[in-house]
Amino acid sequence: MSRKAIIILDKTVDRIVLAVSLLFFLICFYAMFDAVMVYYNANDSSILKYKPTLNDTSALQELSDDAVAWLTIDNTNIDYPVMQGKDNSEYLNRNPYGKYSLSGSIFLDSRCDNEFNDIYSLIYGHHMDYGSMFGALDNFIKPDFFNEHKKGTLITIGGTGYQIDFFACIKAPANEEIIFNPIRSKNNSLLDYLQQNAEIYEQPLEGGEHIIALSTCQSAETIERMIVFGTLTPIK
After folding, report:
1. Which range marks the domain in which residue 132 is found?
2. Can you tell me the distance from the alpha carbon of 125 to that of 127, in angstroms, rounded to the nearest whole number?
3. Fewer CB within 10 Å, N or C, the chain?
4. How many structural domains does the chain have?
């Protein structure tokens, strides 16, 4: 091979190496940017300006026609609007503003009543790092954490306020009908199931005939879910 041919080959190899290195850098940059944006969307505190009070839900009404409530779990990062789509995939990867987001939204099962008049209401949220979205639910399986985080508040778009008193935590597959089919689930059967299978179970408050469940995935590779159960008591 002539010296000129070798020089041309070397330059070609250099260009290929440079192009591959640039492509690798862009992929890494995009992955890092994407991770930052997911974290930012999951921790966007600007959403708090839409948080309602018992006497005034106008701010939440301004957020979206799909906003049905605001959920707050005391002493956790869970302090978000609750959305409800036409089906249970609409807000998996859409934030409360209606824009695409991998962190999605906290959302009520599309089959449930949006004023939480059902005897059983089911809410979903992605499992995010640092306790964002429903990432904090993992901790409820620890007895000490559970005992220190038993209270929450739910304010509906119609202005009804509920106190949440948590009484159970369980890991269960996403195809468990008694948990994940709220329109067919009966509370007596649900309570029996929880009493027999829950990692943590306490007798629910007397008069707490309305049950709420908060569910999040354990990982992308499994259908196992972490679910925390509480009773809803109207705030007078």
Report:
1. 46-234
2. 7
3. C
4. 2
Amino acid symbol at 184: R
User: CA 193, 197, 198, 204 torsion: positive or negative?
Assistant: positive
150 and 199 in a single domain? The answer is yes
As a whole number of Å, the CA-based R_g of the chain is 23
Whole-structure pTM value: 0.81
pLDDT digits (tens, 9 = 90+) for 74-129: 999 999 999 999 999 999 999 999 999 988 999 999 999 999 999 999 999 999 87
Render pLDDT for 138-158 as a digit per residue (tens, 0 to 9). 999 999 999 999 999 999 999
Torsion sign across C-alpha atoms 207, 154, 178, 216:
negative
Residue 133 sits in the same domain as residue 37? no
Which residue in 45, 47, 227 sits closest to 146, CA to CA? Answer: 227
